[in-house]
Design goal:
The complex is a heterodimer of chains A (346) and B (302). By secondary structure, chain A is an alpha/beta fold. In chain A, 36% of the residues lie in helices and 26% in strands. Chain A has helices at 16-27, 42-50, 60-66, 81-91, 105-117, 132-143, 172-175, 179-195, 283-286, 297-312, 320-338; strands spanning 7-12, 31-37, 55-57, 71-74, 95-98, 122-125, 149-157, 198-206, 216-223, 228-234, 244-251, 254-259, 262-267, 277-282, 344-345. Chain A starts with 6 loop residues before the first strand and ends with a strand. Chain B has a single domain (8-87, 152-291), classed as NADP-dependent oxidoreductase domain (TIM Barrel, Alpha-Beta Barrel). In chain B, helix 3 (36-48) packs across helix 4, helix 9 (129-144) crosses helix 11 (171-185) and helix 12 packs parallel to helix 13. With 302 residues, chain B is of the alpha/beta class. Classes of the chains: A alpha/beta (346), B alpha/beta (302). At the A-B interface, helix 1, helix 2 and helix 9 of A face helix 2, helix 6, helix 7, helix 8 and helix 10 of B. The structure holds nicotinamide-adenine-dinucleotide. Nicotinamide-adenine-dinucleotide is lined by residues 12-18, 38-40, 60, 75-78, 80, 98-99, 125, 127, 168 of chain A. Nicotinamide-adenine-dinucleotide (NAD) binds at residues 12-18, 38-40, 60, 75-78, 80, 98-99, 125, 127, 168 of chain A.
Chain lengths: 346, 302
């Protein structure tokens, strides 16, 4: 396929993630970025001057009006996700949207309602599902090698905030929440991918440096299957240079630990093709090369899957409906924390 | 410009607490090296085995390491530093707080480079292609401030920037970086990438193969994109000045196996390897001298 026949992409929100998605989609053989929109034009204008094949806009609706686009990538701050998604749905343009789904549950419901009325190909960017170790972990869980599951314990920590935060992430109106929504949503997405829907939570949250949002959260989870567990998140955790996720699950036949760096499985008896005793798989063993790598293979793989939806019409692997469930869980956790940890049903 | 870089270049990651295999291991190493004297010990030991250079980012700890190198009688005269620019973490943090555009303006305004600041005032509205040259030059100079007195071997552009610039289609920026580094700093401009085949094709087409290109290479394909097979054309190009990183696949491979594998590639000029202890330096550098056709300085006893 030549570039002139390739899938034409528009990007809205040209910050770090917008830049990353632009580079990957422009690097692919079969897609190209033709327009970017961002209300603050400094960087987009520079880009467009240096690469005239990419047009710059300050306003998403103007970009949608003027550019013939095959798909849009939404990478604006969270509170702008709803209006951007609704604009794409109205025009029938497929969209890839960054996580978390929205800032407030109601916005997510609005998106899902619009999609129900007018189904539009889309995908939400919970990229942890495209990290090799988490994929392997899911394989082990679905294989039922662990037998009856006892408990799951998960965490995500990063050394990000040790002063009062500056920027939209720390402004509740724009972000919708703190570490639980920003980072914890990745883990909740993985947990529902591994173990199914969550039906009940209770939670406590702590603000260490922020006044409007939580810097740490501790959430007790109950799944539809009856499995129980806990998620702990904190973005003021020393010595975690990059976000580190850990999921530990125990069952009648053994235990499984999954981190960004690999998996470690112990089984009392061999089961589902996994050997008795320890199976350790590290990042070098699990690594899979990608066609274009900018900032990590997971971003390439998720965008490749998105393009596959467009090309083959196959169903989206991560729908707004799935992301809405994560949003529900988080909203319930906030409510529980406000009520001093009372259980909330989802 | 002829490309002459050291065959063995120590990586900075273990000294700064970065471990690609295990974050926990990285933290442990970081603790061990809080005492800069311990880093210097490893450097001098490696020097005695024939290593003459190290990579260095502007990590907060880099300044004390630079100072210690300059104060050491052996290292100050015969140890070359290979800066890796820019220090990405700083930019990611800054852009979270201020947005990319403001960050750029703020970064540039740190420069005490008087007349060039006119560029900034136009920067917001109408930065155009010819301004890009000045912009690249300014950014390089700002990033190089911490390395002023050190002996340089080459200046490496961080893979995040190389791969962004390439995929965004901003080839001019590469040219400006090459010209400026060679003219002002008198060393080769070098590039780290996660996409070796694509960068090799581009650099070959543009006649830029004098610039060393660094990418991951190991027999298990860890961080090798898109695959080892797809890299063969580049790795068998004798005109490519290839620098291998991740050769031990984060400790997954033994040095002997790792360097036997690298030895088959005619493009290989140099290996960047992280060592965190004297014993591992002895083992790793020993394996390199056994398997690779590197010319090392004569061994000396400290
Ligand atoms: N998947 C991941 O790993 C990951 C990581 C970081 C952020 N994110 C998500 O990506 C999105 C962007 O985050 P970021 O880190 O790139 O932020 P950022 O601050 O770097 O960039 C946001 C950009 O959006 C622009 N913007 C502001 N209002 C806008 C509007 N109304 N319409 C369009 N653009 C607007 C800003 O000018 C800025 O350039 C968020 O949804 C965030 O949650 C995902």
């Amino acid at each position: 396929m030549t570039k002139s026949h390739s899938i034409r992409i528009g990007i809205t929100g040209f910050g770090k993630m917008g830049l990353l998605h632009t580079a990957i989609l422009n690097g692919f053989e079969d897609s190209k970025v033709v327009a970017v929109s961002d209300p603050s034009p400094m960087i987009t204008k520079v880009l467009s001057n240096l690469n005239p094949n990419i047009h710059a806009y300050e306003d998403l609706s103007e970009m949608l009006e003027k550019e013939p686009l095959d798909a849009v990538v939404i990478a604006s701050p969270v509170s702008f996700h709803e209006s951007a998604a609704l604009a794409c749905i109205e025009k029938g343009i497929p969209f890839f949207m960054e996580k978390p789904l929205v800032a407030h549950l109601q916005q997510g419901k609005n998106i899902c309602a619009a999609l129900e009325k007018k189904p539009t190909p889309h995908m939400i960017g919970f990229m942890c599902r495209y990290i090799e170790a988490f994929q392997k972990g899911q394989e082990v869980v679905l294989s039922k090698a662990l037998g009856r599951l006892h408990r799951v314990s998960a965490s995500i920590y990063v050394a990000q905030l040790f002063n009062k935060g500056v920027g939209w992430r720390y402004d509740r109106k724009v972000s919708g929440g703190g570490v639980l929504l920003s980072q914890g949503s990745h883990v909740l997405d993985l947990l529902t991918w591994y173990f199914g829907k969550i039906t009940r939570v209770n939670a406590e949250v702590t603000s260490l440096y922020s006044s409007e949002i939580e810097d740490a959260a501790h959430v007790m989870l109950e799944f539809q299957s009856g499995l129980r567990g806990v998620l702990d998140c904190c973005w003021s955790k020393r010595f975690h240079r990059t976000p580190e996720t850990r999921i530990e699950v125990a069952g009648d036949n053994g235990t499984l630990t999954v981190t960004d760096d690999g998996i470690s499985l112990y089984l009392d008896e061999s089961a589902s093709g996994y050997q008795k005793g320890w199976t350790n798989l590290t990042a070098p063993e699990l690594y899979q090369g990608v066609e274009v790598d900018v900032g990590g293979g997971q971003y390439t793989r998720e965008l490749r899957d998105f393009l596959n939806i467009l090309k083959t019409g196959k169903p989206s692997p991560i729908t707004a409906q799935q992301a809405l469930h994560v949003q529900h869980v988080i909203e319930a956790a906030y409510l529980s924390a406000e009520r001093k940890g009372t259980p909330e049903v989802i | 410009m002829t490309t002459k870089i050291d065959s063995i270049i120590l990586g900075h990651n273990p000294f700064f607490g970065i471990d690609h295999l295990s974050a926990q291991r990285g933290n442990e190493k970081s603790q061990r090296f809080e005492d800069v004297g311990k880093i210097i010990e490893v450097l001098k030991h490696s020097h005695s085995l024939g290593a003459r250079g190290m990579m260095m980012s502007t990590h907060p700890r880099a300044q004390s390491v630079s100072k210690a190198i300059l104060e050491d009688s052996v290292l100050s005269s015969s140890w070359r530093v290979y800066p890796l620019v820019p220090y990405i973490q700083k930019y990611v943090r800054g852009s979270n707080e201020k947005g990319l555009g403001n960050l750029l303006v703020e970064t540039l305004s740190q420069a005490t480079l008087g007349q060039k600041l006119g560029l900034l005032l136009r920067g917001g509205k109408g930065l155009i292609t010819k301004d890009l040259k000045q912009l690249v030059e300014l950014l390089v100079d700002i990033e190089m401030l911490p390395f002023q007195k050190l002996n340089l071997g080459a200046i490496f552009l961080h893979d995040v920037v190389t791969d962004l610039v390439f995929n965004l289609g901003l080839d001019n920026a590469f040219e400006y970086f090459r010209d400026h580094v060679q003219k002002k700093y008198g060393v080769p401009a070098a590039f780290v990438t996660k996409n070796l085949p694509a960068i090799h094709r581009k650099f070959k087409a543009n006649g830029w193969l004098d610039s060393p290109i660094m990418a991951s290479l190991n027999s298990v394909g860890f961080y090798v994109n898109p695959s080892i097979e797809a890299c063969q054309e580049a790795l068998f190009d004798p005109n490519l000045n290839f620098v291998a990183m991740n050769s031990l696949a984060s400790g997954h491979l033994s040095p002997d196996d790792a360097y036997k594998f690298l030895a088959r590639y005619p493009a290989l000029r140099s290996v960047v390897v992280g060592v965190s202890r004297k014993e591992s330096a002895t083992q790793t550098i020993g394996a390199m001298s056994r398997h690779l056709k590197f010319e090392l300085p004569p061994q000396e006893k400290l």
